[in-house]
Every structure is written in C-alpha cells, then in structure tokens.
Amino acid sequence: MAESVVVLSGGLSHERDVSLRSGRRVSEALRSRGLEVVEADVDSLLLPRLAELDQPVVFPLLHGGAGEDGALREVLGLLGVPFVGSLGSSSRVAFDKSIATTVVHDAGVRTPLQVALPHEIFRELGAATLVKALAEQIGFPMMVKPSRGGSALGCSKVLTAEALPSAMVGAFAYGPVAVVESFVEGTEVTVAVVDRGAGPTALPVVEIRPDSGVYDYAARYTAGATRFLCPAEVPDEVAARCAAVALRVHDVLDLADISRTDLIIDAEGEPVFLEVNVAPGMTETSAVPLAIEAAGWSLGKMCADLVRAASMRGSRMPTMSPHPGALTG
C-alpha cells in the first residue's frame, strides 16, 4: 500500500473551484480510512513534492483542461508515479466530445447527430451560411457546447437560427472547437462505473431533475438547485440498458478505475450517449457520491480501494507510438 496519497485538485481551468471541492471531499474520505493524505495543486511545487514522498499514489481530481485531457497523467507515467484513473491516451479521447462521440457511435452506442466546427471555420466561411446548413441538417432544438470541457460551461440549448451565432460564440469562449448536436428529449441520467480491482461495475443509475429544466453550471453546483434520484425512477430494464451502455463506453474508450457516463433516455426508453468524464465530481452536490451511497458503499472505502489497486498496479508509462522511420524486427 502507498505510504502517501497525493490528492490533486485545483488547477487553472474554469472548473478550479469545483475541483477544489472534490479534492477536499476525497481527502476527508481517505483520511477516514487511516490513509496519509497530501493535498496538492498543479504548480511548480508538485514534482519536487512527489520526489520527496515515499511510494506516493496520485488521486487526480482536476476537472477540465490539464486534469482530464491526459497531459498530467502522461507526466505521472513518465515519472513512474502510480495514479488512480485512466491513462493519458484514453483520457485525451474521452475528454474531446467530438472524438469520443465518434468512437462510441462506431461501437454501436446510440449518440446524437453531431457536427464539430473549429472557430476559424465558423469565422472565415461566414456564420450565415453555416447556420442555415446546421438548421437543415440537425434541426431545432439543438445543443451547442465546447468540444473540450466540463461542468456544462459554454453549453447552450438553441431553439432558433437567430440564437445560434451567440451560442457558438459562448462555446468558443471555452475552446477553439464547438460541437453542435441534435437535442434529445427525455430523462437525463448519469451512470458511474468503478473498478476496485475485480473488474468494472456500474453503480445505480442517478436521475437528474434540475429545477430550471436545464442542467447547467448553476444547477450542478448550487445546493438544492437540482434533484437527484438514486436509483432513478425508470423501469428496471431501462436502468439495466443504461448500465450496459456505461460499461460499454468504459470498455470501448479503454478507461480505468472510475468514469461517469451521461445519458438521455429517449421516449422509447433507449439510452443515448451524451459524454463521459474520467474525473467525475465528488462534491456534496455531485452524482457519483450519491450513487456510491445507493450501492451500499462508503466513499472512503471506495476511494481507498482505488488507491490500493493503483498502488498494486504500479506505474504506467504513456503509450508511445514508434516513429514512422524507426527500424523494427
């Protein structure tokens, strides 16, 4: 078992505050299990601190940016430091909605119709023509959101062509690529998948009912703004399909330890993939801790099990592709 668990939270993304809250919650949970916890941010002190510790295991709880795009995880791999969660390469694919949706769709999972548009294309080719084409191909209502990011920042439900340009600008404020996808009417749910060392397990389905009708940033992180039902008030066979989709996404994207898949259950009772998160929130208003409790687990025991599994697994070097000109054989 690791001598120290380094809980990483904070960072410089727009989700810094949420990350800090997740980090504090997990740190308390791990300490309740008797583990030595070091709370750290991503700054110039991080690597020297890791070097000073005896057999550290990192528990990344950074949301957005460097925390979920795989970069930091690849650094940890290079340093030989074990960590909880998916490899950098898998995290990078999962973090980009335009790529993850394509991979998941190709694996037979239902997804919305989606188009990815870089800012330069939208600006240079002219918004008017693109708005018309999007309206014809995707239709209204539609969802516009940054390709890379979380916590619903920069996301908008668009009802008319007139509202689309401003929604695109809002998405581009959080990244250079926006995705425009068909809006799926239905029941919003989320399913966590956890692997404590014996294989991935889907936790009970959490149903999400925001008071405002839109599960945006305020609805996610304002206490009382959203009602979470766990288990979800859906038929058992629908819940089973949701769990199967979450496990399929976890497998297809080659994720590890913990993930959370967001879905919409459509009018036919079929789950439709929205996105997946490799560092799900662990705050007091987050869905995953609620699902953990509904499963009869404790947050502290689950987190300690993930740390133990990461410690036993050891360091994981980042995936290296051979140079095209390298000699083989």
TrEMBL record:
<dbReference type="Pfam" id="PF07478">
    <property type="entry name" value="Dala_Dala_lig_C"/>
</dbReference>
<keyword id="KW-0961">Cell wall biogenesis/degradation</keyword>
<dbReference type="GO" id="GO:0008716">
    <property type="term" value="F:D-alanine-D-alanine ligase activity"/>
</dbReference>
<keyword id="KW-0133">Cell shape</keyword>
<feature type="domain" description="ATP-grasp">
    <location>
        <begin position="101"/>
        <end position="308"/>
    </location>
</feature>
<protein>
    <recommendedName>
        <fullName>D-alanine--D-alanine ligase</fullName>
        <ecNumber>6.3.2.4</ecNumber>
    </recommendedName>
</protein>
<comment type="function">
    <text>Cell wall formation.</text>
</comment>
<dbReference type="InterPro" id="IPR013815">
    <property type="entry name" value="ATP_grasp_subdomain_1"/>
</dbReference>
<keyword id="KW-0067">ATP-binding</keyword>
<dbReference type="InterPro" id="IPR011095">
    <property type="entry name" value="Dala_Dala_lig_C"/>
</dbReference>
<keyword id="KW-0436">Ligase</keyword>
<dbReference type="InterPro" id="IPR005905">
    <property type="entry name" value="D_ala_D_ala"/>
</dbReference>
<comment type="pathway">
    <text>Cell wall biogenesis; peptidoglycan biosynthesis.</text>
</comment>
<keyword id="KW-0573">Peptidoglycan synthesis</keyword>
<keyword id="KW-0963">Cytoplasm</keyword>
<dbReference type="InterPro" id="IPR011761">
    <property type="entry name" value="ATP-grasp"/>
</dbReference>
<dbReference type="InterPro" id="IPR016185">
    <property type="entry name" value="PreATP-grasp_dom_sf"/>
</dbReference>
<keyword id="KW-0547">Nucleotide-binding</keyword>
<comment type="similarity">
    <text>Belongs to the D-alanine--D-alanine ligase family.</text>
</comment>
